[in-house]
Design brief:
The chain is built from one helix and nine strands, in the order αβββββββββ. It is an alpha+beta fold. It has one domain. Strands 1-4-5-8-9 form a five-stranded antiparallel beta sheet, with no helix packed on it. A two-stranded antiparallel sheet has the order 2-3. A hairpin with a 5-residue loop joins β2 and β3. The relative contact order is 0.16.
Length: about 110
């Protein structure tokens, strides 16, 4: 009987440990350099996912940011902050840029 009590207590501790896990997805973060070649075009989207217009980089541009890899999802993101790039034609100031790749395709 004592054995069953200890066994039941052990299973309860395991169940509590599993139910208290944070459920977060593991990721790997590192700094990266992103080279944007002249003539490259980026499409801007609203928060609802509607495309608004294309921005064209007229000169080669090098940006520094963070690469965040989610191995379990086969996904990674490149985030660049404080770009401070003004596009004269469209009168848009580009400050932050995030690109998401899923299964090696730009999303």
């Amino acid at each position: 009987m004592k054995f069953l009590y200890k066994y039941g207590l052990f299973l309860s501790i395991i169940a509590i440990g599993l139910s208290c896990s944070d459920g977060k997805i593991d990721y790997i973060a590192s700094t990266c350099q992103m080279k944007i070649k002249s003539g490259s075009t980026f499409t801007l989207y609203t928060q609802l996912g509607d495309s608004t217009e294309n921005l064209i980089f007229e000169n080669d541009t090098i940006l520094w940011g963070n690469a965040i890899c989610f191995p379990e999802l086969n996904e990674y993101r490149i985030q660049v902050e404080n770009i401070n790039r003004y596009f004269v034609k469209s009168k848009i100031m580009l400050d932050d840029l995030t690109m998401t790749f899923v299964n090696d395709s730009l999303k």
